[in-house]
What does this fold into?
Amino acid sequence: MAEPVGRGVGPTPELDSFAAGALDAARRAGSTQTVELVVAGVGARLHLCGEAMAEHCLAGLAPLLADTPAGDGFELWAFDSVASGVEPPPPPWQLSAYGPREVIDGLASDSLLLSYALVPGSLSLLDRRTREGLFWTRDAARQPHWERSQPLRNLLRWVAAERGAVLLHGALVADERAGALLTGPGGAGKSTTALACAGGGLRCLADDMCLVADGSPPRAHQLHGLAKADPTALAMLPALASLPVVGTTTDGKRMISLSELPSYRAAPDGVELRAIVVPRVAAADGPGERLRPLEALLACAPTSMLELSGGQGDELALLGSLLRQIPCYRLPVGPDPARNAARVRELIEVGA
It folds into this structure.
């Protein structure tokens, strides 16, 4: 299971009281729309308060939407104070407790998971005992683009931990039998390569983050339903140039819905993970170079650890396990998207 995002001293009555008060505030905020989700096989009912919060969440959560409840799941609320007029209680920690990557220093509990993003100012909380959780921000209409493309990331990550799934940084592509995780640092070409795979007959199931559960073989699951691509990348992919744009990031990237991509088909049960691919922009494409486990860990781990908020022990442990089970390749990607997609398909087929 995921580690508590807070670290340090154990639970306190003040922390328990805060969590109870915050969940009570979420219930009082109510909901204008309720949807059923399935997150890596775990059911959750999500109550959305206000049009701005629904707009913030629903496009990004499209792959998780379900028609019927999935058994004894979690009860989640997403609300803001502008729409609801409801404020969560004052936190019991000091301003100095806010740490990097949304960690709240000094908090640790077996049952409560909390994180706080100073920018834009948002709280995520999950109580494992009551199976209730919430996401709160002051004004959902002012959420930045990175929050809109990955709504409720921490909350859903903790829900997925119920089945041993953890969040890893990388794009996910698949054929009809199995898939590959494309990972590596920003600018390595993973998003462009994943979108090229969509134009080359593969399914692009995730652009930046996916959930992975250990097993024989491991399985990867979708989390968010939006992809980001800069205009230069889209110009290289004419099949995608006419797709509707959901939004634009501050650095000029276009947000598009994965469901609009060619060859898209949702994977509600996940896909078998058969290869890990670390793209490298090159003058020409080439065959994948098999990496030894230590080389693979050095290539994959830093970006996942930097991208994720606190409590990363499970993610690092799973990544190490994956690299012992699944072949990892460094793949030169050249200027021809079709050839790059064909190279990725070859690596999936070798593993499958």
